[in-house]
Design goal:
Length: about 150
């Protein structure tokens, strides 16, 4: 199974917004960070807002933030909201014309796999996958780099 680019970008967008706490993030900012078109992000933002994951504010000084705490946003729910369907094979889709329908054991195997995939996604929230932003270093300061014992710098 392969998730659509829209779902992938939705998760990236939510991770970015989640990393910035309650600060309003803009589409332009996210587009620049991830190299995604603003037009595409506008559609995604709209869908995420309709699904209740984002709160959006229009106008000058507007932007977006999470509509609820990251710990309350399940990854499985985001994927379900953004994916157009889960028709992994033809027999899962509407209008199925497979000649094996009703006689094929593969359907049950694939259905179970899809269910396990979604159950695994449901175990995680946005908070589980957020990495904290690096602390800002004072102007001109260099990060400390630790070397492993026994390594010899040349």
């Amino acid at each position: 199974m392969r998730l659509t680019a829209m779902t992938d970008y939705s998760l990236r967008l939510l991770m970015h917004v989640g990393q910035h706490g309650g600060r309003l993030c803009t589409i332009a900012e996210i587009a620049q960070v991830y190299g995604i078109s603003e037009a595409h992000l506008m559609k995604i933002t709209h869908q995420l807002a309709l699904a209740g994951f984002l709160e959006t504010l229009r106008g000058r000084g507007g932007g977006m933030r999470l509509a609820r705490p990251a710990a309350e946003i399940r990854i499985g729910d985001v994927v379900r909201a953004m994916e157009p369907d889960f028709a992994v094979v033809e027999c899962f889709a509407t209008g199925n014309v497979c000649t094996l329908s009703g006689q094929c054991r593969l359907t049950g195997v694939l259905h179970g796999s899809l269910a396990a995939f979604m159950e695994n996604l449901d175990r995680y929230t946005l908070a589980d996958i957020l990495e904290p932003l690096p602390a800002a270093l004072p102007l001109g300061a260099q990060p400390i780099v630790f070397k492993a014992r026994g390594s010899h710098a040349k």
